[in-house]
């Protein structure tokens, strides 16, 4: 029979299952955005003002070839190193602010870089991409509905990270102030998708993110 000593010895070797690796960051290949930036092929420069850094565009942004430039800037969302990360992120938001009807025809070309950015599983990159997705959906009429067919490529990673909220205990979670709490940002993004995605948005979100509850039901 096993004595208490033997039981204690056995318990030392009892270990839990290995992490599945769903949250582990994936290495990211070099981006085309960085290559174009280093060649000096983007008509922009870094400018400092009292509010911080911003992009100084050397041309009227509305005259840019969106079909060429916007997918490249989306590709740069995977960047985490300055200045590439700053130029890609701010450049995307600037172009979405001024693109209007030019944006929706390019949507199919944006899905692959969006998916690649989310699949890095890098928390910073995911948060940046979620904010861009919200801006994209609201950038022009009907964009939210146009995005619905691509949910199956975008939402699986959101489902994986949906419940990842930072437990700050009694302290202040400064990530909330910066909108960098990944779980909250995912919930916010899904609600934006539902509001702007038309009548088929909710059922398609629910299919991939089963724990999501409609924000449209009073």
UniProtKB/TrEMBL annotation:
<dbReference type="InterPro" id="IPR019399">
    <property type="entry name" value="Parkin_co-regulated_protein"/>
</dbReference>
<dbReference type="InterPro" id="IPR016024">
    <property type="entry name" value="ARM-type_fold"/>
</dbReference>
<protein>
    <submittedName>
        <fullName>PARK2 co-regulated</fullName>
    </submittedName>
</protein>
<dbReference type="GO" id="GO:0005829">
    <property type="term" value="C:cytosol"/>
</dbReference>
<dbReference type="GO" id="GO:0043005">
    <property type="term" value="C:neuron projection"/>
</dbReference>
<dbReference type="Pfam" id="PF10274">
    <property type="entry name" value="ParcG"/>
</dbReference>
<dbReference type="GO" id="GO:0051879">
    <property type="term" value="F:Hsp90 protein binding"/>
</dbReference>
<dbReference type="GO" id="GO:0031982">
    <property type="term" value="C:vesicle"/>
</dbReference>
<dbReference type="GO" id="GO:0030544">
    <property type="term" value="F:Hsp70 protein binding"/>
</dbReference>
<dbReference type="InterPro" id="IPR011989">
    <property type="entry name" value="ARM-like"/>
</dbReference>
């Amino acid at each position: 029979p096993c004595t208490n000593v033997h039981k204690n010895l056995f318990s030392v070797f009892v270990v839990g299952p290995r992490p599945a690796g769903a949250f582990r960051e994936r290495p990211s290949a070099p981006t085309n955005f960085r290559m174009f930036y280093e060649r000096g092929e983007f008509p922009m420069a870094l400018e400092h003002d009292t509010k911080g850094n911003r992009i100084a565009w050397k041309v009227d942004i509305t005259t840019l070839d969106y079909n060429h430039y916007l997918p490249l800037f989306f590709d740069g969302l995977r960047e985490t190193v300055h200045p590439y990360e700053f130029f890609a992120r701010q450049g995307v938001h600037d172009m979405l602010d001024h693109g209007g009807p030019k944006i929706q025809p390019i949507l199919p070309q944006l899905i692959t870089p969006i998916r690649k950015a989310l699949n890095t599983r890098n928390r910073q990159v995911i948060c940046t991409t979620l904010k861009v997705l919200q801006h994209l959906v609201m950038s022009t009429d009907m964009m939210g509905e146009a995005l619905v067919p691509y949910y199956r490529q975008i939402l699986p990673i959101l489902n994986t990270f949906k419940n990842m909220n930072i437990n700050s205990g009694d302290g202040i979670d400064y990530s909330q102030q910066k909108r960098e709490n990944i779980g909250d940002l995912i919930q916010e993004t899904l609600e934006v998708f539902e509001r702007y995605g038309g009548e088929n948005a909710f059922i398609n979100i629910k299919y991939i993110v089963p724990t999501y509850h409609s924000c449209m039901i009073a």
